[in-house]
Amino acid sequence: MAETLEKKGIADEVQNQEHAPDVSYLPNPDAGLNEEECAAADKKLLRKLDIKLIPWLSFLYLISFLDRTNIGNAKVDGLQEDLGLSDSQYNATLTIFFVSYALFEPLTNILLKKLRPSIFLPIIMVWWGICMTCMGLVHNFQGLMASRWWLGVAEAGLFPGVNYYLSCWYRRSELGIRAAIFFSAAALAGSFGGLLAAGIAQMGGVGGKPGWAWIFILEGLATILVGIASYWMVHDFPDEAKFLTPDDRARVLRRLRADNQASASHEDFKMVYFWASVKDWKTWAFAIIYMGADGALYAFSLFLPTIISGLGYASTTANLLSVPPYAAAAIITVLIGWVADRTQQRGLCNIFISLFGVVGFAMLLGSAKPGVQYAGTFLGAIGIYPCIANTISWASNNVEGVYKRGVTLGFVIGWGNLNGVVSSNIYRGQDKPRYFLGHGVVLAYLVLWLLGGSVITRLLLARENKKRLAGERDVWVEGKGNEEVEALGDRRPSFLYTL
Predict the structure, then answer these.
(1) Could you name the CATH architecture of 49-491?
(2) Per the UniProt record, which residue ranges are transmembrane (predicted)?
(3) Hey, what's the torsion of the CAs at 19, 25, 29, 32, to 10 degrees?
(4) For 187-215, what is each residue's pLDDT tens digit?
(5) Residue 350 pLDDT more than 90?
(6) Residue 468 to residues 385, 452, 460, 477: CA-CA distances in angstroms?
(7) Which pLDDT belongs to residue 370?
(8) H, E, C per residue of the chain
(9) Residue 59: pLDDT above 50?
């Protein structure tokens, strides 16, 4: 995997020619090296970054996704019956998570920048680990609702935070594969979660508690331990990261500056960055695309065990049969991330892969045969999971400015996650075993927002690029100095959008 990550090294050319980025003020530790030696130094640096950043962050997201979706595994093990929940009450416990999760996401990247990743991420992990543990101790609907609300608040900072954080380390052409590997942890969590839940559920009766309670308690305690360890395992932004030597820090900042990224320099937060994101049409275009992917994702991940059990399988078997679709999704997620980096055609990747999801849910709607429906879950997973990481990379590539990008990603991801409110209420008990309503809503999300949104956004970005190349936007920089031009971020006429 390290070799794959290295291939996009020093050879990437700067797209900005008219206002080429100035890196002369940054120290150059490779000043006396030839082109081949510079390339070797760059590859060595990338390998170091990948080893230090990607594995642990991916592990954190695996824990996060496992903790938010294991309630689906707990349900098939008897949670709903033991707590005396009606179908609407169970769905409410899913819904309330997404309300708090989405409300706090736009704010978390500002906190991440101000508090530093090595402080912020461990705090929220310990917090949500406590919430998870409490979910295993509740005795009624009210207790479960309270735990799920605070779980959403605590988890809100991880996914947008890490994607923003990675965009402050890597070039645009390098981000997709890293974001895909990071997000593939969600698919692995679904796969691993089914196996783990099937095993932990065998503890039913230990300490007088049912198996579903032990799923929450043990996974919550593990999250607390991982959160504490993260204080030493999570590194800060490039200008403060302690694992970098002075030469490596200079290399990171120079390669970011050469990629036209303001991530290479320090910015103090100003409300102008917030409003720049709010007024940018791209923020809402990518929010619509992400809404299509994320709404489908949560419906799929929360109810896959229920869908499979509806085919006539017992709880343990249903949890185990949920493993292969997630494993397939993890592999395709990484593959699409690699292809999108190589081609820089993130929109086309979204359009192509979303068609698999459309076909998969059409199969779930159109056939009552267990074999066809199970095959549909594979295509559904393959068509949804890769688009999550690819859409985040696509949005990040097309927004410049440290805080503007952070706010934009917060809005995009927050709006997408708010659609979990819909996702958690469309698979109703009275609709089993075919779940026409649930499958139909997910299919609509895929067709209208993910596929349709990707097509329209790509066309608009291509049209804007043509205007910039034709000189129609040069008036934006007339009479401005270099610093004023750089302050325009992605509104610089020479900044070409990734399609």
Answers:
(1) Up-down Bundle (1.20)
(2) 53-71, 91-112, 119-141, 147-167, 179-200, 212-234, 284-308, 320-340, 347-368, 374-395, 407-427, 439-461
(3) 70
(4) 777 667 777 777 888 887 788 888 889 98
(5) yes
(6) 33, 25, 13, 12
(7) 80
(8) CHHHHHCCCCCCCCCCCCCCCCCCCCCCCCCCCCHHHHHHHHHHHHHHHHHHHHHHHHHHHHHHHHHHHHHHHHHHCCHHHHCCCCHHHHHHHHHHHHHHHHHHHHHHHHHHHHHCHHHHHHHHHHHHHHHHHHHCCCCCHHHHHHHHHHHHHHHCCHHHHHHHHHHCCCCHHHHHHHHHHHHHHHHHHHHHHHHHHHHHHHHCCHHHCCHHHHHHHHHHHHHHHHHHHHHHHCCCCCCCCCCCCHHHHHHHHHHHHHCCCHHHCCCCCCHHHHHHHHHCHHHHHHHHHHHHHHHHHHHHHHHHHHHHHCCCCCHHHHHHHCHHHHHHHHHHHHHHHHHHHHHCCHHHHHHHHHHHHHHHHHHHHHCCCHHHHHHHHHHHHHHHHHHHHHHHHHHHHCCCCHHHHHHHHHHHHHHHHHCHHHHCCCCCHHHCCCCHHHHHHHHHHHHHHHHHHHHHHHHHHHHHHHHHHCCCCHHHHCCCCHHHHHHCHHHCCCCCCCC
(9) yes
Q: Using 50, 70 and 90 to split pLDDT, how confident is the model at 317?
A: confident
pLDDT single digits (tens) 226-266: 999 999 999 998 888 889 988 888 888 888 877 766 554 55
CA distances for 47 relative to 6, 105, 289, 344, 381, angstroms: 7, 31, 32, 21, 30
Domain ranges in the chain are 49-491
Q: What is the dihedral of CA 138, 142, 147, 151, to 10 degrees?
A: 150
Inter-residue contact 392 to 179 (CB < 8 Å):
yes
Judged against a pLDDT cut of 70, whether residue 333 lies above it is answered with yes
- The pLDDT tens digits for 409-430 are 888 988 888 888 888 788 887 8
